Inverse folding.
């Protein structure tokens, strides 16, 4: 079993309940969404991850440890682990949320993983959380360091191109689509007046980072 066996099954059920499912619940069985557990899990995750990195890398400065931690607990990494744990298949969603691809939504999966961490902490304590994260999340740190994904992609790209004697990259918005509450931005990163990479995101900052990542692959 990928998810630890819970003593209190209601905690696990709550951790796997998206708020959209509450709209379709049986009124005789009121339930709570996983948002409060996500809040708790976020704090527990940061504590245990900080402790792990502090002990694993005794000579690394605070700034490097912070960068490692950010890469480990970012949405994309947590969503990867959530997929490995099949959390998307176990989620309780509304029909509308499921139809819109909620079971594969990275943000939703990452939030659910944090809720599982919060629920496990309440159910079994900090040591069980440590074992869970050591098994499923912390092994990813070696690849993060090897591939340098802990570096901010925009900063890393700037260092990369300047080392090659090229000018500082610039970013331009080429498209924005969707309603105001759910826009998607498309941004190109330019180097020497040429398109070096293109990225999309729900914010301009995210789209810039994605564009920088594609450019890094090119210049590496």
């Amino acid at each position: 079993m990928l998810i630890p066996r819970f003593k209190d099954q209601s905690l696990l059920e709550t951790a796997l309940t998206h708020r959209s499912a509450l709209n379709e619940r049986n009124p005789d069985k009121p339930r709570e969404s996983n948002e409060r557990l996500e809040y708790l899990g976020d704090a527990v995750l940061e504590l245990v991850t900080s402790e792990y990195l502090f002990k694993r890398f005794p000579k690394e400065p605070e700034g490097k440890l912070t960068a490692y931690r950010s890469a480990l607990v970012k949405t994309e990494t947590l969503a990867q682990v959530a997929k490995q744990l099949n959390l998307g298949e176990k989620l309780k969603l509304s029909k509308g949320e499921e139809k819109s691809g909620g079971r594969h939504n990275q943000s939703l999966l990452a939030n659910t993983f944090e809720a599982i961490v919060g629920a496990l902490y309440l159910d079994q304590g900090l040591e069980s959380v440590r074992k869970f994260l050591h098994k499923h999340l912390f092994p990813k740190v070696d690849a993060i360091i090897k591939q340098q994904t802990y570096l901010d992609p925009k900063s890393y790209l700037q260092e990369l191109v300047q080392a090659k004697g090229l000018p500082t990259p610039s970013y331009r918005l080429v498209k924005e689509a969707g309603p105001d509450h759910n826009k998607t931005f498309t941004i190109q990163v330019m180097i020497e007046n040429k398109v070096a990479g293109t990225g999309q995101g729900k914010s301009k900052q995210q789209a810039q980072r994605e564009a920088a990542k594609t450019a890094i692959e090119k210049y590496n």
In short: The domain at 153-219 is CATH 3.30.160.20 (Double Stranded RNA Binding Domain). The chain is about 55% helix and 10% strand. The first helix runs from residue 9 to 15. The mean pLDDT is 91.
